[in-house]
Design brief:
Elements (H helix, E strand, L loop, with lengths): L1 H4 L14 H7 L6 H25 L5 H10 L16 H7 L4 E2 L12 E3 L5 H12 L6 H11 L3 H8 L6 E5 L4 H5 L4 H13 L7 E4 L2 E3 L9 H4 L4 E3 L7 E9 L3 H12 L3 E10 L10
Parallel strand pairs: 2-8, 3-4, 3-7, 7-8
Antiparallel strand pairs: 1-2, 5-6
């Protein structure tokens, strides 16, 4: 009974083969040479798998690859492509321009008062594209800091337009489902940055919210008439709220107009809109 409960002995690991008496006593058979060769070949792969698992668990799996990537492909400015910097001083000045009030008569799809910090062209266009694609995560702080400088001109105008007994909600334009899936909410980050700047500047409560959702598909490649058919719904009750809409780029104003209609249907009042950049047109100019 004792021998039946004793664990089987491991096969001999020395080069000398086990004797027949040892095989009978332990009940184990030596490993065939073919199996030994296979085990020796697989050992490095097992070790590499174990190391990779430990490496992932440490939370530092991307650091060596990022370092190696910077050696092969050094950093470039998101706007002009200058080497060894995420954003050069000249491109930082583009983000710090004072916002201007666009002429709503020249926007084909909306009558909203829209503030914009620049023209969607050249280096600023490249910065916005890099920000939206997530290729340059390091420029997020510079973009949000530029809001503080650019939105300063909007504060006196906004203070005259707002009622003192109602709160202000900074609401971002609706994002596509793919951006929500990948948590790449560009307009949401801009709205939060504008909220952080306006909150200490105004004498009323200022909050940030994200209640708008799209009902239609992509806008890329559509004309102004097709863009005007975009539908937006508001998931929250906006009764008693004053609203400033926020978007990254305005082209015809169709998305902002649809967002304003959705908020007004929910009981809110849209005061104006703020955008990071405006798509250039021959007729579009700033208000005097």
């Amino acid at each position: 009974m004792f021998n039946a409960l004793t664990p089987l002995a491991r096969p001999p690991t020395s080069k000398v083969n086990a004797t027949s008496s040892d095989e009978g006593r332990t009940g184990a058979t030596p490993r065939p040479p073919a199996l030994k060769a296979i085990a020796l070949k697989c050992a490095p792969f097992k070790t590499a798998t174990l190391r990779a698992t430990t490496f992932r668990a440490s939370g530092l799996k991307c650091v060596p690859f990022r370092t190696a990537g910077q050696l092969v492909l050094p950093r470039q400015c998101a706007g002009c492509g200058l080497w060894d910097t995420d954003l050069c001083p000249q491109c930082q000045q583009l983000l710090s321009r004072s916002a201007t009030l666009l002429n709503s008569d020249l926007l084909p799809a909306t009558d909203l008062a829209i503030w914009s910090q620049g023209t969607y062209a050249g280096a600023l266009r490249q910065i916005v594209l890099s920000f939206k694609s997530g290729r340059h995560r390091a420029i997020t702080g510079a973009i949000l800091a530029g809001i503080n400088d650019g939105a300063a001109t909007m504060v006196p105008w906004l203070a005259c337009q707002l009622a003192k007994d109602k709160p202000l909600a900074i609401i971002n334009a609706p994002s596509k489902l793919s951006r929500r899936w990948h948590a790449n909410l560009v307009a949401r980050q801009l709205a939060q940055g504008l909220t952080d700047y306006l909150a200490p500047q105004l004498d009323i409560a200022v909050v940030s919210a994200d209640p708008l959702r799209l009902r239609s598909g992509k806008q890329l490649g559509k004309n102004s008439r097709q863009r005007a058919q975009r539908q937006v719904k508001c998931l929250a009750d906006a009764t008693g709220w004053q609203v400033v809409l926020v978007d990254d780029v305005v082209t015809t104003g169709a998305t902002l107009e649809a967002s304003a209609k959705a908020i007004e249907a929910a009981g809110g009042v849209v005061v104006c809109a703020w955008t990071l950049a405006t798509a250039p047109t021959k007729k579009r100019t700033a208000r005097p």
